[in-house]
């Protein structure tokens, strides 16, 4: 079976419930602004995580299709590079307006394929849209620098596009993460190839449809599908100049090493274990609400989810109060009104998360709230894990050492702030962290001494807005975090600097002898 696209074509067609799709339509590639059915022989079944009904089949794009995407992006590049900055900006304005217009439709696709609640899916789209909105300021961002070195000599720097960029995306933010690449890469004059997660490519397909409507010429944005085979193609294709990867350490460290060895630019955001230190002087109610929301929202499947709590001093007795708040959350199908968290992505993820909870029990931790075996009545076949709180955890336990990526909060106890700092700094990941306190001096000490890339002070998920950059640290980024996503470093990643020094002397040269010593312009 094959047809045009997973993207519904009118608002009436987008899903508003988890009802079984009567005739699942195969996901297509997007090449030269066309939805092209794949000739794949291997297909990946995509199931609604709330029901495990089949939603679509995602192709393992063929070698010819992968090559066709690169041919298309290569062909489009010279004219796109030569398109005036203001014309590219106009297309971006239209793109931004269209994404806002199709916001609900994009979110519905995410809820159906990824499982997160509709309200949360709208946030996924909005965080990506904000990157696109900021990219509209390209006319200022692309300005170079100029220095008059002498009265007849000047040096200028320009930013030029690299050529073809590829983005390899994870399952947990099907709209936001493609939108970390598409706006910044294209507005700066590159063409790009997006490989969405094979587990939820629907939002990326809608983004492609909107890109065509906004006026992006054929080939500027292409979409191909598949898993490791497609990734290897991207790494090895010499015409692709840069790779933007977001996902797990296993895949990302491999892509960074092999891509860098081929001379490509690679930016790679990886896994996390985000800790929050809770101090006795914090605003307790605000902190406990913030912690429950950040631990269990999106079923804990955010790279900035707050998965690890460090109770300082007497706050160790607060776990039951967090459990009360967690119990009040509604786990349900993402389209259901009032749903707070949906299912996890797959039956395998559910099993892995439950197994880790089992290890905590065996290793001597206290299960304060156990989400295993819970399910909403209406969706008995989904991948459900309810909010889980594990207390009295120690550093050697499996539940502390592994990224759980589910609705599980692990809690450790330390007597002082210094020990909290030491514990968090010792952890190999350094994506985000937070402190809850009402003391400015304590917050400042934490801010200065903590080794994590994104710090929240009474803010549980401190994801930087697009005018800043997503600044993970330690094992949460490959390559030491030199190439971060969006903001000024994002612009830097997608552009090559060129520096031109020119000399225009009005008088004729007097000497006829060539100078051979090192020019120093002094
Ligand atoms: P994943 O690594 O399994 O998949 C990400 C992408 O890599 C997919 O497109 C997939 O097809 C590809 N891939 C998977 N295995 C591969 C392999 N062996 N070889 C080559 N390519 C491979 O990640 P995921 O499960 O989709 O996403 C969850 C992970 O992403 C978590 O670890 C989470 O912390 C991380 N994440 C990090 C950030 C961040 O900004 N730091 C943001 C979102 C997600």
From TrEMBL:
It is an enzyme of class 1 (oxidoreductase). InterPro entries: Ald_DH/histidinol_DH, Ald_DH_C, Ald_DH_CS_CYS, Ald_DH_N, Aldehyde_DH_dom, MeMal-semiAld_DH. Residues 35-500 form the Aldehyde dehydrogenase domain. Residues 1-21 are annotated as: Disordered. It comes from the Eukaryota. Its EC number is 1.2.1.27. Pfam families: Aldedh. Residues 1-17 have a biased composition (Low complexity). Coiled coil: none annotated. Keywords: NAD, Oxidoreductase. Gene3D superfamilies: Aldehyde Dehydrogenase, Chain A, domain 1, Aldehyde Dehydrogenase, Chain A, domain 2. SUPFAM superfamilies: ALDH-like (SSF53720). Belongs to the aldehyde dehydrogenase family. This is methylmalonate-semialdehyde dehydrogenase (CoA acylating). It comes from Zasmidium cellare (Wine cellar mold). The lineage of its organism: Eukaryota, Fungi, Dikarya, Ascomycota, Pezizomycotina.
């Amino acid at each position: 079976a094959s047809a045009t696209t997973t993207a519904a074509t009118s608002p009436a067609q987008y899903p508003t419930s988890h009802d079984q799709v009567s005739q699942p339509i195969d996901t297509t590639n997007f090449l030269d602004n066309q939805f092209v059915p794949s000739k794949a022989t291997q297909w990946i079944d995509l199931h609604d995580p709330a029901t495990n009904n089949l939603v679509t089949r995602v192709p393992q794009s063929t070698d010819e299709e992968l090559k066709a995407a690169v041919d298309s992006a290569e062909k489009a590049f010279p004219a796109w590079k030569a398109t005036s900055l203001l014309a590219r900006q106009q297309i971006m304005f239209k793109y931004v307006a269209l994404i806002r217009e199709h916001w609900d439709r994009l979110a519905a696709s995410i809820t159906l394929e990824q499982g997160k609640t509709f309200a949360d899916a709208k946030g996924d789209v909005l965080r990506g849209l904000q990157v696109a909105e900021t990219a509209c300021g390209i006319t200022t961002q692309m300005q170079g620098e100029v220095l008059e070195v002498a009265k007849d000599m000047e040096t200028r720097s320009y930013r030029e596009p690299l050529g073809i960029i590829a983005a390899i995306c994870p399952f947990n933010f099907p709209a936001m993460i493609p939108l970390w690449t598409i706006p910044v890469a294209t507005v700066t004059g590159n063409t790009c190839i997006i490989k969405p997660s094979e587990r939820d490519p629907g939002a990326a397909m809608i983004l492609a449809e909107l890109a065509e409507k906004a006026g992006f010429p054929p080939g500027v944005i292409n979409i191909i599908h598949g898993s490791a085979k497609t990734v290897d193609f991207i790494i090895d294709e010499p015409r692709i100049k840069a790779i933007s990867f977001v996902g797990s350490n296993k895949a990302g460290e491999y892509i960074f090493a092999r891509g860098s060895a081929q001379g490509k630019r690679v930016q790679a955001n990886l896994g996390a274990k985000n800790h929050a230190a809770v101090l006795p002087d914090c605003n307790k109610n605000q902190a406990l609400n913030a912690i429950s929301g950040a631990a269990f929202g999106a079923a804990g499947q955010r790279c900035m989810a707050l998965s690890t709590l460090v109770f300082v001093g007497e706050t160790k007795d607060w776990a039951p109060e967090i459990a009360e708040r967690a119990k009040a959350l509604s786990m349900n199908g993402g389209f259901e009104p009032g749903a707070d968290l949906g299912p996890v992505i797959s039956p395998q993820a559910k099993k892995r998360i439950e197994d880790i909870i089992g290890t905590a029990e065996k290793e001597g931790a206290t299960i304060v709230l156990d989400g295993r075996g819970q399910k909403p009545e209406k969706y008995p076949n989904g991948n459900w894990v309810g909010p889980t709180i594990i207390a009295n955890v120690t550093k050697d336990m499996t539940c502390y050492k592994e990224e759980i990526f589910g609705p599980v909060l692990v809690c450790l106890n330390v007597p002082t702030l210094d020990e909290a700092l030491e514990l968090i700094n010792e952890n190999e990941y350094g994506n985000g962290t937070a402190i809850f306190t009402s003391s400015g001096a304590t917050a400042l000490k934490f801010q200065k001494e903590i080794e994590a890339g994104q710090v929240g002070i009474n803010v549980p998920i401190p994801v930087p807005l697009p005018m800043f950059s997503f600044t993970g640290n330690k094992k949460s980024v490959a390559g030491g975090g030199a190439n971060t996503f969006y903001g000024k470093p994002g612009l830097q990643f997608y552009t090559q600097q060129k520096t031109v020094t020119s000399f225009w002397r009005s008088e004729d040269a007097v000497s006829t002898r060539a100078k051979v010593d090192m020019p120093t312009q002094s």
